[in-house]
C-alpha cells in the first residue's frame, strides 16, 4: 500500500525536478509562452491622487507542469513607469509579495524576473502581482500586447506569451468602475450611457439626405439638384491646357473620357488656366479654381489658377457625382483657407507599410489636404534608408530581443521580439521615391522628420552599432566614430518623457554635425529628381533635463562652471538649433521644428534673428488651456516664425523662470487647516493597498475598545512613573500649605534645593527640624533588602505624626526624582498622603529624541519639553539638529551651516537658503526656517542640566545631509567670490563638485550623501566634533557624538573620482560601493571621536554592513559604541537587529518604530496627524504595553493590519536570542517632525504617549515577567485600566494646567434599545453629545434615552474646555 501511494508522488516529484532543471532552455521558454496565462487589471486610478494608480497582474499556470524559478524573465511594455518611487534602479524592485523583481530596461520595456524566493507555480495556481504605476490608465489600449518570455541563456529564442498575443487585448480586465476610467478625483468624465449619447445625437436632425455637398465646403457654391447632367453616357470628351497633364491622367483614370485638342460644344469637360475670381476679387492662391456645370449644353468648365487648383476642381466633380454618374448644375468659386493643410503620421512607434501610406495619400487628396509629414525617426525606430549609413535601418528599424542593441533595438510598445510585426520595418530608397511620386501626383508634398536632439534612441544605438562594426572590420577609431551621435563615456543620467535613458544626441561632438550634414544632403538627394524638399524638419522637442551634464565634450562649451541641468539643456539645445539652422540655410532650405525646439523655455521663443534660414516653421502642439501655454502659437508667430497648429492632449506642467518675482503661497493652501484637502471617505481613499485590512474605527468599534477600561472614579494615590515600592495611606494627610515648612539638604543637593524652593514656599535651615521639615540627605538606598547601585535611586517617607518628609538619595539625581514624586503626590490644596516609597529606575538611559530639522522648534518649546521630561523622570534629550531639510545649530567658524542651511526659501541654486520642503514657506519664515545660536544652545544645556537631563545633538551623515552639503557648497562659492584660494574655499566641502553619481534617497533627495573619500569631509567632521565638545564643555560634558549613519542611498559615490581609487575592486556594484565607503567613514568618525575620549553613537543601520550583519565591534576604536535601534517591522525580518547588535558588543537603545515612534497617528483614521510607514497607528496603550526585555513578544500586527504572533515570527528563525542583556542601555521615544509644524502639533503627538514611555523606561511591571501570553495580556489589561484612570483623572489635567495641548481621544458610542451609551479611553474626561447636528452640546454622564433617533454627534472635552473633533453615530 505504501508503494502504491509513493509511485504517483514520485512521478510528480520527477516532473517538478525536470522543470527546475530545464528552466531557461527552449523547452521551458516554449512552455511558459504557451501556458502562463496573463490577466492585467487596473485596480484604482484614484488612490494615489494624480501621482499614480494601482494595477495588478495575475499569472496563472494553465498547463500540466509546474513552473519554477530559473533563467527566465517576462518582458512587457508598460507605458507608465512601474513603481516610480523605486524604479529605475539597477537592482530592480520586488513587486508586492510576488517574488518577481521588476526592472526598467528602457523606454516602456520592463522585465519581471523570479527571485530566489519564487515559489513553484503549480498547475492551476496563480501569482498576484500588485504594483503602483505613474499617472493613470483609463483605456484598454493603454495596455500593450505581446508580452514575451526570454532566457538569460544565450541561443534561446524568446517567445510571446500566447495569452497576450495579437490585437484582441483579451487579457486586459474591464474598465467598469469610476476608479478605473477616471484619471484623478476631479476628472468629471464618465463613459457615455446610451441615454447621454441619445441626448448628444439629438442635436442633429435627420435631413433625409446629404443634399448637394462637397467636403471641404467651397467658399461659394450654388447648386440646382433638379437639373442634372449625366456623365455616364460614354461619349464625353476632355480638353485641358498642357499645364494640366498630370490632372488629365488622374481624371481619365476615373472617368471614361476621350481627350480632344480643343473644347467641344457639348458633353465636354474643359480645364483652362486663368485668374480665379472669388467674391469679386482675384484669388492669390495657386490652388484656387472655379467649377461650372451647365445642364443646357451639357458641359463642365474648370478654370484653375494652377495645376493644384485643377486637381481640386476634379475632386469637387468626383465628390458631386452620384452613384449613377450624374452631377447637378452647380457654380463653385473656391480657394483654401490655409496654404498649409497637413497631416502627420508617426512611423517610428509602429511602422506602416507603403500600401497604407498610398491609401492615406488618396484619402488626403480626396479632401484637398496638401502636406504629409512623415515622423520617420524617434526613440523606437528609424524608418528611412539613408545610403551610406546602413545601420540606421539595419539596426534602427528592427526590434528584437537583444539587450546590447547592436543588431536591433529592444521591443517597445507591444512589438514582437523577433524582428517581425509592426514594430519593425522601413522604407527603402525605392519605396520612398515611389511615395514621393505618388504624393506629387496628388499635389501633396512629403516632409520627413528626423527627430533630434531628443527622441533619438534608435539613431544613437544605430550609430553606436556602426562604430562597433567598423572597429570589428579593423577601421580606425576616427572612421568608426565619424557619425557617432553620443559620447560613449558620458555618464549623464536622465529619463525622457517616454522613459528612455539614452535618447539625447550630443550637440558638442563633431561627429553629430557630420551626421546632420550627411543626413540633410542625403534627404535632399532623395527628393531632388521628384519633389524638391523645401524644408528640413529636425524635431527639437522634449529634450530631457539632465542630458549632457556630465559630457566632457560639452563642459568646455558651457557659459559658466557650474550650470544647473536645466541651464545645460537650454544652452546646448540652442547651440544645436543654430548649427542645424546654419547647415540647412547653406542648402537654401527652410528649418522646421516642433514649437519647444524653438523656445528657450515654456514662455520665450528664441530670437528669430539667431537663425539663418529664410523661413523657420514651428509645429505648435501644446495648448492645454489651464496650463497657460496656449499662447505659444501667437508668441512664435509674433516672433517671426511661421506657425503650424497641432492640437494634442498630453499632460505636462508649466512654471515661471523669471527673476525678481517674489513667490507667493496659494491662499487656499495657506496655514494649518488643510481645508483644501478633500475628504477621505471611501476605502479607496483610506486604504494603502488592496490587502490593507485597516478601516477607520466606527463609534461602535471605539466603544468596544474603550470598554476594556472601567471608570474607577479617581486616580488613587499614584505617581508616574510607578515606583518600585510604594505604600500609601490617603486617610492620613500632611498639609504643606501652612507656610511654615522648612527645608534641610546636604550640600551636594544645592541644585535640587533651588528647584524645590522655586515650587514650594520653604525656608532653608542648617539642620533638620523635628516637624514641618523636608530633609534631603545623601546615603545608601535599600530596595527589597538590597542596596541600589543606581545614583538615581531614592527613598521617600511622609510621616503624618511629626509632620515631616524625608528623602534619602544615592545622588543628586535621586534627590531630584524624590522631589518630583513629592510634587506628583501633592493635591490641589497642597496636601500629601502618608507614604513610604523606595525607588530606582529600570534603565539608566530613558531618552526622547526630537527632530528639529524637518520643522524647527524654538527654544521655549524645548524648555517646556525639558520640564515635562523631567517631571516624568526622563534623563536624555536627543536633538536631531541636522537632516536634508535643515541644519539647526550654529557652529562658529562655519557660518553658512545656519546662514544657508537653516533657512528655506525659493532659490533653485540653494546658495542663500535651501528649497522649501514639507509645506514650509518660500520666504525664509515659518517653521521651516530657524536655528539655535550658541547662546540659545548653551541656555538649553544649562536648563537641561538643572533637570538632570543630558543633551545629545545628532549630526546626521553620510546620508540625510542635503542641507549641510548645500551650506558648505555655498561657503565654497562665497570664499571664491572673496578671492580666497581654491584650497581655502574647499576646506570644508562635503561633496565632490564633479561627482555625477545619481541616486534617490528615501525622502527623494538626489544630493544628500556626504562624500567619505575627500579630505575636506574629515576636516569638517574633526572641526564639528571639537566645536560641539567646546559648546558643552563649561556646562555639561558631552560623552558621545551621534553621527546618524542611517539610510544611505544606493548609487551614492559610484562616479566619484575621489572614491574610485579607494574601492576594493575595479567594478563594484552600487550596493558594494555604498557598503564599503559607509564602513570607511564609520571607522574614520570612530577614530576622530576616540581621540577625544568620547563614545560613538549612531542609528542601527549606520553600524551594520547590510540588513543582517553588524560591523565587527573590533573595527571601532571607541570604548563604547551606542546603537539607536529603530527598525523592527515584524514581517520584514529585521526585528532582531537590537539583539544582534547587543550580542556583537554594541550598547543598544530601544527605539522600535512600531511602538516608540510618536510621529505615527494615535488612532486609525485619515483625520489623524502623522505618518504610518512602520505601523498604521500607535496609541498610548500600545506604548504602555511595550516589553523592552522581551522584544519578539511585542509582535502584534503587520503593516497591513494582519495579525502576527511571536510564534509565527520566530518560525522563520529570525528570533535571535539576547545573549548580552547588559548591553541594553534603555529606551527612547522619537518624534520626527515632517507633519509637526507648531507647538500644538508637538503637544498633540507627544502626550500622553510620552507619559506611557516614561512608565516603561522607569518601571518594570510585574506582568512583563509572565511567560504565558494569555495570562500576561490579562494582567497587562488590569494595569492599563489603572494607568488609563491615572491619565484621565490626574496626569492629563496636570499637563493642561502646565499649558500642554495634549491629544484628545475620540469617544466611543453605541445605540442600544434606543439608548445612547458612550465612553472614552481615559476615564475622567468628559464625553459630549449633540442631537441637533452640533448646534448645542450636552455632557454625557449616563445612558441617554433617545426620543427621535437621528444622527448623534459626539466629541470629548478636556478639563479646561478644549474639545476634540466631532464624530457622527448613525442610528
Structure in words:
With 1371 residues, this protein is α/β, with parallel strands linked by helices. Helices cover 26% and strands 20% of the residues. The chain is built from 32 helices and 53 strands. Strands 37-38-41-42-43-44-45-46 form an 8-stranded parallel beta barrel, surrounded by 4 helices. The protein has a 7-stranded mixed beta sheet with strand order 10-18-16-17-13-11-12, covered by helices on one side. Helix 25 (1070-1091) links the parallel strand 42 and strand 43. Helix 7 (354-366) packs parallel to helix 9 and helix 19 (859-871) runs parallel beside helix 21. The longest helix has 29 residues, at 1269-1297. The protein is elongated and about 145 Å long.
Summed up, what is this model?
The protein is 26% helix and 20% strand. The protein is an alpha/beta fold and 1371 residues long. Residues 34-196 form the Chitobiase/beta-hexosaminidases N-terminal domain.
Amino acid at each position: 500500500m505504501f508503494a502504491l501511494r509513493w509511485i504517483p508522488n514520485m512521478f510528480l516529484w520527477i516532473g517538478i525536478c525536470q522543470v527546475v532543471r530545464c528552466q531557461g532552455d527552449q523547452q521551458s521558454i516554449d512552455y511558459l509562452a504557451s501556458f502562463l496565462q496573463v490577466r492585467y487589471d487596473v485596480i484604482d486610478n484614484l488612490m494615489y491622487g494624480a501621482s499614480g494608480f494601482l494595477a495588478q497582474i495575475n499569472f496563472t499556470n494553465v498547463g500540466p507542469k509546474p513552473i519554477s524559478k530559473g533563467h527566465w524573465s517576462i518582458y512587457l511594455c508598460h507605458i507608465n513607469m512601474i513603481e516610480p518611487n523605486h524604479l529605475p534602479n539597477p537592482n530592480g524592485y520586488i513587486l508586492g509579495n510576488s517574488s518577481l523583481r521588476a526592472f526598467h530596461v528602457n523606454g516602456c520595456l520592463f522585465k519581471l524576473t523570479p527571485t530566489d524566493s519564487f515559489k513553484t507555480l503549480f498547475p492551476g495556481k496563480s501569482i498576484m502581482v500588485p504594483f503602483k504605476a505613474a499617472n493613470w490608465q483609463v483605456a484598454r489600449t493603454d495596455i500593450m500586447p505581446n508580452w514575451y518570455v526570454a532566457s538569460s541563456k544565450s541561443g534561446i529564442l524568446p517567445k510571446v506569451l500566447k495569452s497576450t498575443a495579437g490585437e484582441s487585448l483579451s487579457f486586459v480586465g474591464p474598465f467598469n468602475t469610476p476608479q478605473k476610467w477616471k484619471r484623478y478625483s476631479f476628472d468629471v468624465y464618465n463613459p457615455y450611457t446610451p441615454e447621454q449619447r441619445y441626448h448628444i445625437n439629438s442635436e442633429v436632425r435627420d435631413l433625409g439626405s446629404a443634399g448637394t455637398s462637397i467636403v471641404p465646403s467651397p467658399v461659394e457654391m450654388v447648386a440646382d439638384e433638379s437639373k442634372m447632367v449625366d456623365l455616364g453616357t460614354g461619349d464625353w470628351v476632355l480638353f485641358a491646357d498642357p499645364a494640366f497633364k498630370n490632372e488629365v491622367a488622374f481624371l481619365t483614370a476615373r472617368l471614361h473620357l476621350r481627350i480632344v485638342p480643343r473644347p467641344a460644344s457639348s458633353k465636354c469637360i474643359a480645364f483652362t488656366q486663368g485668374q480665379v475670381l472669388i467674391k469679386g476679387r482675384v484669388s492669390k492662391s495657386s490652388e484656387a479654381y472655379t467649377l461650372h456645370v451647365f445642364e443646357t449644353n451639357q458641359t463642365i468648365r474648370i478654370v484653375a489658377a494652377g495645376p493644384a487648383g485643377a486637381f481640386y476642381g476634379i475632386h469637387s466633380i468626383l465628390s458631386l457625382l452620384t452613384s449613377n454618374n450624374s452631377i447637378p448644375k452647380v457654380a463653385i468659386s473656391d480657394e483654401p483657407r490655409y496654404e498649409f493643410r497637413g497631416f502627420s503620421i508617426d512611423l517610428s512607434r509602429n511602422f506602416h507599410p507603403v500600401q497604407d501610406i498610398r491609401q492615406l495619400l488618396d484619402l488626403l487628396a480626396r479632401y484637398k489636404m496638401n502636406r504629409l509629414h512623415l515622423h520617420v525617426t524617434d526613440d523606437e525606430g528609424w524608418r528611412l534608408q539613408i545610403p551610406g549609413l546602413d545601420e540606421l535601418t539595419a539596426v534602427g528599424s528592427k526590434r528584437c530581443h537583444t539587450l546590447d542593441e547592436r543588431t536591433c533595438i529592444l521591443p517597445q510598445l507591444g512589438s514582437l521580439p523577433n524582428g517581425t510585426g509592426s514594430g519593425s520595418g522601413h522604407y527603402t530608397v525605392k519605396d520612398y521615391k515611389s511615395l514621393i511620386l505618388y504624393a506629387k501626383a496628388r499635389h501633396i508634398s512629403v516632409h520627413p522628420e528626423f527627430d533630434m536632439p531628443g527622441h533619438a534612441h534608435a539613431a544613437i544605438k544605430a550609430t553606436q552599432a556602426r562604430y562597433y562594426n567598423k572597429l570589428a572590420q579593423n577601421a580606425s577609431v576616427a572612421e568608426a566614430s565619424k557619425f557617432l551621435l553620443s559620447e560613449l563615456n558620458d555618464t549623464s543620467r536622465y529619463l525622457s518623457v517616454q522613459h528612455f535613458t539614452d535618447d539625447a544626441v550630443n550637440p558638442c561632438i563633431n561627429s553629430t554635425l557630420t551626421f546632420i550634414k550627411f543626413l540633410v544632403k542625403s534627404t535632399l538627394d532623395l527628393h531632388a529628381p521628384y519633389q524638391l524638399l523645401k524644408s528640413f524638419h529636425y524635431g527639437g522637442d522634449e529634450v530631457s533635463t539632465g542630458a549632457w551634464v556630465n559630457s566632457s565634450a560639452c563642459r568646455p562649451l558651457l557659459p559658466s562652471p557650474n550650470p544647473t541641468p536645466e541651464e545645460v539643456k537650454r544652452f546646448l539645445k540652442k547651440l544645436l538649433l543654430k548649427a542645424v539652422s546654419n547647415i540647412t540655410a547653406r542648402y537654401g532650405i527652410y528649418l522646421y521644428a516642433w514649437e519647444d525646439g524653438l523656445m528657450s523655455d515654456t514662455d520665450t521663443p528664441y530670437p528669430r534673428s539667431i537663425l539663418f534660414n529664410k523661413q523657420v516653421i514651428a509645429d505648435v502642439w501644446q495648448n492645454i488651456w489651464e496650463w497657460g501655454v496656449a499662447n505659444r502659437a501667437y508668441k512664435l508667430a509674433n516672433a517671426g516664425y511661421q506657425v503650424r497648429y497641432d492640437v494634442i492632449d498630453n499632460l505636462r506642467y508649466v512654471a515661471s523662470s523669471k527673476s525678481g518675482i517674489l513667490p507667493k503661497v496659494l491662499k487656499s493652501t495657506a496655514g494649518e487647516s488643510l481645508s483644501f484637502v478633500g475628504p477621505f471617505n471611501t476605502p479607496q481613499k483610506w486604504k494603502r493597498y488592496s490587502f490593507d485590512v485597516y478601516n477607520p474605527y466606527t463609534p461602535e468599534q471605539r466603544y468596544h475598545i474603550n470598554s476594556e477600561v472601567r471608570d474607577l472614579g479617581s486616580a488613587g494615590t499614584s505617581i508616574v512613573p510607578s515606583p518600585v515600592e510604594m505604600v500609601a495611606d490617603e486617610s492620613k494627610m500632611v498639609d504643606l500649605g501652612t507656610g511654615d515648612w522648612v527645608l534641610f539638604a546636604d550640600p551636594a543637593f544645592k541644585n535640587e534645593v533651588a528647584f524645590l524652593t522655586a515650587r514650594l514656599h520653604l525656608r532653608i535651615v542648617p539642620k533638620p527640624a523635628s516637624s514641618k521639615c523636608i530633609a534631603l540627605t545623601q546615603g545608601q538606598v535599600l530596595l527589597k533588602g538590597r542596596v541600589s547601585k543606581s545614583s538615581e535611586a531614592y527613598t521617600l517617607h511622609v510621616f503624618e505624626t511629626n509632620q515631616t518628609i524625608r528623602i534619602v538619595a544615592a545622588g543628586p539625581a535621586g534627590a531630584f526624582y524624590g522631589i518630583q514624586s513629592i510634587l506628583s503626590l501633592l493635591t490641589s490644596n497642597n496636601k500629601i498622603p502618608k507614604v513610604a516609597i523606595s525607588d530606582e529606575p529600570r534603565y539608566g538611559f530613558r531618552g526622547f529624541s526630537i527632530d528639529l530639522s524637518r520643522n524647527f522648534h524654538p527654544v521655549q518649546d524645548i524648555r517646556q519639553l525639558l520640564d515635562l521630561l523631567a517631571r516624568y523622570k526622563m534623563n536624555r534629550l536627543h536633538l536631531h539638529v541636522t537632516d536634508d531639510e535643515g541644519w539647526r545649530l550654529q557652529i562658529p567658524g562655519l557660518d553658512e551651516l545656519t546662514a544657508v542651511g537653516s533657512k528655506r526659501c525659493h532659490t533653485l541654486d540653494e546658495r542663500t537658503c535651501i528649497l522649501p520642503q514639507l509645506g514650509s514657506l518660500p520666504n525664509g519664515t515659518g517653521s521651516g526656517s530657524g536655528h539655535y545660536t550658541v547662546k540659545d544652545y548653551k541656555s538649553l544645556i544649562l536648563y537641561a542640566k538643572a533637570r538632570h537631563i543630558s543633551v545629545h545633538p545628532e549630526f546626521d551623515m553620510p546620508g540625510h545631509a542635503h542641507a549641510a552639503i548645500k551650506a558648505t557648497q555655498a561657503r565654497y562659492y562665497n570664499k571664491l567670490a572673496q578671492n580666497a584660494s581654491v584650497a581655502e574655499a574647499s576646506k570644508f566641502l562635503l561633496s565632490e563638485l564633479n561627482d555625477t553619481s545619481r541616486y534617490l534617497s528615501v525622502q527623494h533627495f538626489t544630493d544628500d550623501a556626504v562624500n567619505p573619500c575627500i579630505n575636506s569631509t574629515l576636516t569638517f567632521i574633526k572641526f564639528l566634533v571639537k566645536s560641539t565638545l567646546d559648546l558643552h564643555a563649561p556646562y555639561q560634558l558631552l560623552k558621545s557624538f551621534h553621527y546618524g549613519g542611517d539610510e544611505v542611498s544606493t548609487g551614492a559615490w559610484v562616479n566619484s573620482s575621489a572614491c574610485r581609487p579607494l574601492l576594493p575592486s575595479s567594478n563594484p556594484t552600487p550596493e558594494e560601493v555604498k557598503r564599503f565607503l559607509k564602513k570607511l567613514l564609520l571607522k574614520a568618525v570612530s577614530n576622530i571621536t576616540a581621540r577625544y575620549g568620547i563614545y560613538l553613537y549612531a542609528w542601527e543601520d549606520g553600524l551594520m554592513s547590510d540588513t543582517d550583519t553588524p560591523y565587527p565591534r573590533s573595527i571601532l576604536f571607541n570604548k563604547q559604541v551606542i546603537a539607536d535601534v529603530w527598525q523592527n517591522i515584524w514581517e520584514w525580518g529585521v526585528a532582531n537587529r537590537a539583539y544582534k547588535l547587543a550580542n556583537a558588543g554594541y550598547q543598544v537603545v530601544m527605539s522600535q518604530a512600531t511602538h516608540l515612534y510618536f510621529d505615527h497617528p494615535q488612532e486609525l483614521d485619515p483625520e489623524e496627524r502623522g505618518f504610518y510607514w512602520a505601523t498604521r497607528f500607535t496609541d498610548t496603550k500600545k506604548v504602555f504595553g511595550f516589553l523592552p526585555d522581551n522584544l519578539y513578544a511585542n509582535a502584534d500586527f503587520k503593516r497591513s493590519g494582519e495579525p502576527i504572533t511571536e510564534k509565527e515570527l520566530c518560525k522563520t528563525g529570525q528570533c535571535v536570542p539576547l545573549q548580552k542583556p547588559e548591553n541594553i542601555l534603555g529606551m527612547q521615544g522619537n518624534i520626527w517632525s515632517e507633519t509637526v509644524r507648531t507647538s500644538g502639533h508637538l503637544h498633540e503627538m507627544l502626550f500622553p504617549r510620552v507619559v506611557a514611555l516614561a512608565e516603561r523606561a522607569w518601571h518594570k511591571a510585574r506582568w512583563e515577567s509572565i511567560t504565558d501570553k494569555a495570562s500576561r495580556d490579562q494582567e497587562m489589561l488590569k494595569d492599563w485600566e489603572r494607568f488609563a484612570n491615572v491619565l484621565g483623572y490626574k496626569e492629563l489635567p496636570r499637563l493642561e494646567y502646565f499649558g500642554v495641548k495634549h491629544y484628545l481621544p475620540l469617544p466611543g458610542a453605541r445605540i442600544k434599545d434606543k439608548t445612547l451609551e458612550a465612553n472614552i479611553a481615559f476615564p475622567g474626561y468628559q464625553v459630549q453629545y449633540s442631537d441637533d447636528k452640533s448646534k448645542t452640546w450636552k455632557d454625557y454622564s449616563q445612558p441617554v434615552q433617545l426620543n427621535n433617533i437621528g444622527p448623534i454627534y459626539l466629541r470629548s472635552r478636556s478639563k479646561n474646555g478644549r474639545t476634540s473633533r466631532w464624530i457622527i453615530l448613525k442610528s
